[in-house]
């Protein structure tokens, strides 16, 4: 049967989070991706971050478009509702869901085709609205599901399996995000879960839209020599800009990363985002400096990873809209209907 | 084309039409509105139709006032009085005056002799001259010229000066200086007219008591109010004429009624989307999450929403879409009226789909059908289209005051809460279906027991992915049955079959007034006809019964390809040979004469 | 459901069906293809249908081979031999074996006893075991298992070992090592089979001479070639299954035939657009500028293109759109087949529109209809849709070798050059219209005398902006007439009415083979029927004549809502009561049994 | 009649260009915009630049979407074909036209709604493809034609006529362009034709896509106090970064701008683009430095104008596509059709 149900085996020895749930409780259906696909590692990292963050599964909303990447929304958090929409249209669907119920932890999963081609306009406007959600781009430089065409993130000179080279400039979601006012930007590599988990956790706590661009190699169509989105190339060119550590509200700050040179950013919910620059002086709160860094790294052919930019001051969708604290879905009808009396003043009489 | 026989001879007291030809962006519309409102205040049935260009300033614009004591206020095709204030369109305008009728013009400049008709009386009022003398500065002079013009018309049409003065007082409450200059301009025109001509004209107003309990309101405002009352909390849209004022009104009334008095915070969120694809996406997302959400748009927006509408249909997500129809295809004529998105909505999206449509005919119905649309969308978990149009949406109509039944409880459809879910052994998204073929849905944020994965790809009754024919068909076939089940909940057609005629006239939406008037006119010529106005799709038994009961059915609608007739052909058992069409799709609101001409042609053929 | 009566009893030499159940991404498809190709080489009519998932690796996938000496190679519903290589789908697969049929399985592991049927013979071949012994490394072992499997089948089905060896030689020309290991694997399977069982099976192949002069080709490749031959220079697309291979082939053949040998520069440009809205926009822009331009897409793309398609219609810009249909609605089943975009294309876009459709039924027609589509698009200055589908587009069909008439001259329609323009007093874009209601267009870059402003807003016959009813209608009414005029140029339907039966069966596209076979089967049961395959829309007189000449018309198509029947109801005078439907829309290619069952039900009712 | 024909009066005294045409020959239909609308001034500057550049009118293709701005394509170059497409879809239509006939001088006219909302994705990909054309954004911060809603370029705090303030971050087409690899970026002000004309001329000669963002106030809906896209506000905050001078191929360089501090950039067609930095050291060829400048100017609330960025090295659409020099529309059919013989090898036999 095309839809595969994962056997539910409980391991009594598994660690439990504050809700008493094990990591298994944050898993989803069995992946139907190719063995070794980067996307599955991203799923694993998200699963872990959700478990660590003690999020009640039913408060998660998983949203995606269409693509191999989009499918992965079914592979974690089986206790959460999912919305596998149309190609490129996840941002507006997520905006609507978040508008209706601001208490949902919206997790959007997208691909480079989904986000940088057909959905680029929506992504830019999602940034503008600063919708509070985690937005993951599983970036492999190709259209996986349609069998390997170049996506808009393919680097100049990167080749297909058959050896044809891409000539068009790539669109880098980090530069795009910076140009339209994104408030949280990070890049990871599916092969480095240790780096990804704290970034996802910080993203979940962020006041607004958190975009995480994850280089996630496509083993079937884009993992050969000549591909700049392959495991090998990424490993060779990965330059970490920051090491990140996320400390939830209630917890004491006893860092995973050594304290030396650590900067702390208080997050809106009382958590603390701590980071240490790897090249001395990288400051993810200084937009201009970030651009400078990223551009010169790009010039050197580096793939820059880590928490790249964060602005915890900007208002999010609901703050901008002055919406009530209660999710709109929970405002009782009596509060919504003005009642017949209010019609007295309606129309010209 | 001009159907002179209708215009003459008849008493013209409370039975006439005036057309004002102006230039866009000169402030004429508020003066025109003033006239219409004062006739309404005098208790006389009236309509005012704005024929404006898709432009902001400088192009021709018209305002048509039809006064009719019997309530026949559909658009008139010829005019008893033409107020010819736009040199650009003079020739065209003059041609539309009834024989024996009048033309008022600005006599500050001489009339072009070539354009003078023998059978029309010309009334010159030196508006520009008078206003240049009386007012300072080009802006004020232009604005006041319109008011002075209104003043002259007040005299000519026998409008009560006190009524209009009162209107000015209301309008300029707290703006004394403005009130005073408007008042002055009004007098200027009025006094010139009364002192130079013998007034009122044969076509004039006398006070009645036919508008008591009525209001003037446009359909977009009424629809917006309907959404507020229906409990809509999320609205997403992209600006497009003629739907924009719907969302403007929604935002306005929400700001008034939906701001928490204690916290000052909003119990609603209006999202101006980046385009229509985003707008419908936001609506689907919000509806999926449990809010009542809607969008408003017009033809081009409907085209752009096709893909996601199909997703809403197939994944069974409620959505309400107001389509305030304008003239297509393509950009078409954005400020003109048609009902030409019927098929684009009924079968929206690729693959097999069928959607639910509602056809309001008046602002009051826009108000009523808003909650109906949300109830249907949520009960049947599917997109619902309210097909209004520019005439209903943007023109002020005399309407019974809007009424609301405080006992209304929204029909949220089958939604399981956490308690209900706990009682189930297992939850499946698309089964079991109830007698209307609807399965219960669940909302995110409620319980992990109700979690499922919404998808537009092939799915089983459990909601799981499938590519197996029988599993796919199980869901798709139920969708067809579900659509059939909606019919019973669609507002019944408005039927008048007391004539027991073999001829039945079927129409929808804003065509109503013209068709009713046409039936009366036909009756005077000994052609009797029954009447049915369809109010939604899928069609219920009453629609079928009417079609069955009549030998010849004429479907009156405003589009080239007879879209309502098409829908009737396909979705009822009526033999298609029985259906005939009267079509008027030039973009102006429908006139009784259009209908009479069309039906006469059919009967004579 | 399984129509056992068709499967038994009959001679099975060159008349049988095999189904291979595999796992996606394991390399089975090239082995399967090899089998099909060798049967073709043996001169026997054959079809191979790939039922693959919308996934890259790990999900079930099937390949169905139908061999039939009379050319009845539509999909079979039950199989004489099942090659059950996927444990996941075993139960399902076994159920599809004909009584008295065979199942081959990998006997490296024991069979699940529960799944064994009494009336089926099980043939175990220890493929995994053999390949693990013979080959190194997991990748090679998996790949070679498929070839070994093919080897066993070669023995079982009596396929000529030399033929298949020759195929391997051709396929691995220059890759000696690969050829050798494939050869070895093939032998492995073959030898095991011949030494363990009595072969060939009752269902087997014997060489014929029925495919001489034929080729194997898929419709997307053929369509792409048609575009190359038609002289298309600009192609814009966005990847989507099952249309992607059309553009891949276009790029491939352009690289081969269209690279200037002297300069090495390309006489074409393929644009991978950012989405489907852009793709159709690029096509309109390029066509407007004078190139032959096209796009290829599938259902969701058609939905996204709606707005610009309407613009093309209204502003009269040529465009060719290949819609390789898949299963809707929404994302639906991207790797399954339907003809369910007929209405979405025929009436695409809001407002009143009608489009030109072509319905190829085979790769050869995909090739032929490409130039027809460009000719119609340019002659009538309007978008033209070629509605192919996944079965035609992606499966290899036995086809007559493609032929090209070198005397073909593209019909570029009425395009004025600089000289012609100089001779005109004045050029108007939308007049005068010729007898087919087409006005001459001009191209940018040619002469300022032909300059005009293309717009989707209301326009006059001169091309100027208008909001006047009569001016708007003049253009819109001509568009309706123009659409009617296209009918005469649509490829005539394929009609076989030699039975002179009161029953007429109407179909389109890839349904053809199944319907023809069904008519033969029905004939054996003394039900005779005439046949018409419609090849395009608007419908011409031949279509009408056939409908008129038959008392009962059964329309066979693959969608839920009988879309072709709908179009016939609306666009021909046929009384709708005469039209009945046989629908099969589960997503598999149509079988004769589907048709026979459906028609029998109608006749018995 | 809604469509207004401008009286064709010939002024014998008017200066003629190399083609013997006067400026009148580059005009179009009478504008139907509001009196004083910034867009009309942009039209005038384009008209002038076209006349100056001796472009044969029939070789111009005018393309636009929908909006007040889009209408203006009808108000210049009456001898040129125009394509008034759908809202937001001009970029792909222009791409198609340019693909078909590379000799056309494509001039795209758009609005901020057209380009930064509904059309943003297309614009970004037009940049990627570096389609050789002049792309003008008549930027007024509002949707003019639909009567004054905020567009995506409205500044934070800018108010509507009724006084409501915009809260969403604006999208600046210059930053957007820089982030996705634009090769020519300039900003002008409709009130300063002297600055606009040489910029348009350079744009016409540019090897690739030239985006010109012109602040073009909407006098009807967005020219009040409180609007940051008003004439007054723009005048007060306009800071010119470069003074530009365009010297066509054949002409001698005798600059309009004084030679001191002038930098010359050779353009692909042999023309010379000369510019002088106004704040010393502004270098429109240094992408990173440009971003730095623009960001800090933005911080100061300045509206930066002038030629902002130029890269004359990158390949354009046709170079990337290796297309023949001849417009594809002019390749004879005989060259396109492989002929029946070539079918011999087609299909599996
Ligand atoms: C409207 C539409 N167009 C095209 C497609 C076909 N399609 C499916 S996935 C995909 C691209 C996926 O690429 P990406 O987003 O990078 O995801 P990946 O598969 O690489 O993870 C496309 C073009 C579609 N489903 N819908
Ligand atoms: C698909 C579609 N949606 C909406 C509209 C309505 N519409 C016309 S112009 C316009 C905005 C124009 O704004 P802008 O591009 O800034 O141009 P301006 O009028 O300000 O010059 C909109 C939304 C449309 N024509 N088509
Ligand atoms: S095709 Fe590529 S992206 Fe898709 S599942 Fe396989 S490896 Fe992953
Ligand atoms: S509304 Fe604004 S943008 Fe439109 S024409 Fe008037 S001033 Fe110009
Ligand atoms: Mg990808
Ligand atoms: Mg604007």
CATH architectural name of chain A: 3-Layer(aba) Sandwich
What is the end-to-end distance of chain B? 18 Å
CATH topology of chain A: Rossmann fold
Largest sheet of chain B: 7 strands, mixed
Q: Give the % helix of chain B.
A: 25-40%
Mean pLDDT of chain B: 96
Shape of chain A: globular
Q: CATH first level of chain A: which class?
A: Alpha Beta
Number of strands of chain A: 13
Question: Roughly what percent helix of chain A?
Answer: 25-40%
With helices defined by DSSP (H or I, 4 residues minimum), what is the helix count of chain B?
20
- Radius of gyration of chain B in whole Å, from Cα? 26 Å
Mean pLDDT reading of chain A: 94
Using a beta-carbon cutoff below 8 angstroms, give the protein chain pair with the largest interface and the number of residues from each chain: A-B, 65 and 82 residues
Assign the structural class of chain A, choosing from mainly alpha, mainly beta, alpha/beta, alpha+beta, or little secondary structure: alpha/beta
CATH domain topology of the largest domain in chain B? Rossmann fold
Between the first and last Cα atoms of chain A, what is the distance in angstroms?
A: 65 Å
Low-confidence stretches of chain A: none
Radius of gyration of chain A: 21 Å
């Amino acid at each position: 049967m095309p839809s595969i149900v994962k056997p539910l085996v409980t391991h009594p020895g598994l660690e439990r989070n504050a809700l008493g749930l094990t990591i298994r409780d944050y898993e989803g259906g069995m992946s139907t991706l190719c063995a070794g696909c980067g996307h599955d590692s991203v799923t694993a990292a998200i699963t872990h971050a959700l478990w660590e963050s003690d999020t009640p599964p039913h408060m998660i909303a998983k949203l995606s478009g269409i693509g191999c990447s989009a499918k992965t929304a079914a592979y974690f958090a089986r206790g959460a509702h999912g919305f596998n929409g149309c190609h490129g249209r996840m941002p507006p669907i997520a905006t609507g869901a978040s508008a209706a119920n601001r208490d949902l932890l919206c997790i959007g999963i997208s691909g480079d085709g989904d986000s940088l081609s057909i959905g680029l306009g929506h992504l830019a406007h999602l940034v503008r609205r600063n919708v509070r959600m985690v937005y993951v781009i599983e970036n492999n430089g190709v259209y996986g599901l349609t069998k390997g065409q170049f996506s808009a993130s393919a680097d100049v000179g990167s080749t297909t399996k058959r050896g044809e080279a891409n000539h068009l400039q790539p669109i880098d979601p980090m530069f795009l995000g910076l140009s339209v006012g994104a408030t949280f930007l990070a890049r990871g590599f599916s092969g480095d879960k240790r780096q990804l988990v704290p970034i996802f956790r910080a993203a979940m706590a962020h006041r607004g839209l958190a975009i995480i661009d994850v280089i996630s190699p496509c083993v079937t169509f884009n993992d050969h020599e000549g591909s700049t989105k392959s495991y090998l190339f990424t490993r060779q060119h990965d330059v970490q800009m920051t090491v990140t550590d996320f400390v939830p509200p209630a917890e004491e700050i006893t860092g995973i990363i050594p304290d030396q040179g650590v900067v702390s950013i208080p997050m809106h919910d009382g958590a603390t985002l701590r980071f240490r620059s790897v090249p001395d002086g990288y400051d993810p709160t200084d937009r201009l400096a970030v651009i400078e860094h990223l551009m010169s790294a790009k010039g050197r052919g580096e793939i820059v990873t880590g928490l790249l930019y964060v602005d915890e001051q900007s208002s999010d969708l609901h703050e901008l809209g002055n919406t009530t604290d209660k999710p709109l879905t929970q405002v009782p009808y009596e509060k919504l209907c003005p009642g017949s009396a209010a019609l007295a003043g309606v129309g010209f009489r | 084309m001009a159907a002179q026989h209708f215009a003459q001879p008849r008493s013209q007291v409370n039975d006439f039409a005036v057309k004002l030809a102006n230039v866009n962006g000169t402030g004429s519309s508020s003066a025109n509105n003033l006239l219409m409102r004062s006739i309404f205040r005098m208790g006389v049935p009236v309509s005012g139709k704005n024929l404006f260009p898709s432009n902001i300033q400088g192009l021709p614009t018209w305002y048509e006032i039809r006064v009719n004591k019997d309530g026949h206020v559909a658009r008139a095709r010829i005019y008893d009085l033409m107020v010819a204030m736009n040199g650009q369109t003079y020739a065209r305008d003059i041609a539309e005056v009834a024989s024996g009728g009048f033309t008022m013009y600005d006599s500050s400049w001489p009339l072009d002799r070539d354009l003078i008709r023998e059978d029309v009386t010309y009334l010159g009022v030196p508006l520009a001259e008078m206003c240049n003398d009386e007012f300072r500065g080009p802006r004020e002079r232009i604005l006041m010229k319109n008011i002075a013009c209104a003043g002259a018309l007040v005299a000519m049409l026998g409008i009560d000066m006190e009524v209009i003065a009162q209107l000015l007082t209301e309008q300029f409450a707290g703006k004394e200086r403005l009130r005073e200059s408007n008042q002055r301009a009004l007098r200027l025109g009025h006094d010139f007219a009364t002192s130079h001509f013998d007034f009122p004209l044969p076509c004039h107003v006398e006070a009645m008591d036919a508008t008591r309990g009525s209001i003037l309101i446009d359909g977009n405002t009424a629809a917006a109010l309907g959404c507020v009352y229906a409990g809509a909390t999320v609205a997403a849209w992209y600006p497009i004429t003629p739907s924009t004022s719907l969302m403007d009104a929604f935002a306005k009334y929400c700001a008034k009624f939906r701001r928490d008095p204690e916290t000052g915070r909003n119990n609603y969120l209006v999202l101006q989307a980046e385009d229509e694809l985003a707008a419908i996406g936001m609506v689907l997302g919000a509806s999926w999450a449990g809010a009542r959400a809607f969008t408003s748009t017009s033809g081009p927006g409907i085209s752009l929403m096709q893909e996601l509408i199909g997703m809403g249909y197939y994944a069974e997500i409620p959505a309400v879409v107001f389509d305030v129809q304008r003239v297509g295809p393509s950009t078409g004529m954005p400020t003109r009226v048609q009902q030409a998105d019927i098929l684009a909505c009924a079968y929206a999206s690729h693959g097999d789909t069928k959607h639910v449509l509602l056809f309001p005919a008046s602002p009051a119905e826009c108000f009523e059908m808003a909650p109906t649309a949300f109830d249907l969308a949520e009960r049947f978990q599917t997109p619902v289209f309210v097909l209004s149009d520019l005439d209903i949406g943007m023109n002020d109509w005399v309407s019974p005051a809007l009424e609301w039944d405080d006992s209304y409880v929204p029909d949220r459809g089958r939604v399981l809460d956490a308690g209900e879910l706990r009682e189930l052994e297992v939850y499946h998204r698309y089964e079991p279906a109830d007698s209307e073929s609807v399965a219960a849905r669940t909302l995110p944020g409620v319980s992990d027991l109700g979690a499922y994965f919404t998808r537009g790809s092939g799915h089983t009754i459990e909601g799981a992915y499938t590519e197996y024919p029988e599993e796919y068909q199980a869901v798709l076939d139920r969708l067809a049955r579900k659509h059939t089940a909606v019919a019973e909940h669609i507002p019944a057609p408005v039927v008048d079959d007391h004539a027991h005629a073999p001829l039945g006239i079927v129409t929808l939406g804003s065509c109503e007034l013209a068709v009713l008037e046409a039936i009366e006119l036909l009756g005077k010529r000994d052609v009797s006809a029954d009447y049915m106005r369809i109010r939604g799709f899928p069609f219920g038994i009453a629609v079928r019964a009417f079609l069955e009961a009549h030998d010849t059915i004429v479907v009156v609608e405003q589009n080239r390809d007879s879209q309502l007739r098409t829908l009737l052909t396909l979705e009822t058992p009526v033999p298609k040979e029985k259906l005939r069409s009267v079509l008027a799709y030039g973009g102006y609101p429908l006139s009784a004469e259009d209908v009479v001409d069309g039906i006469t042609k059919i009967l004579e053929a």
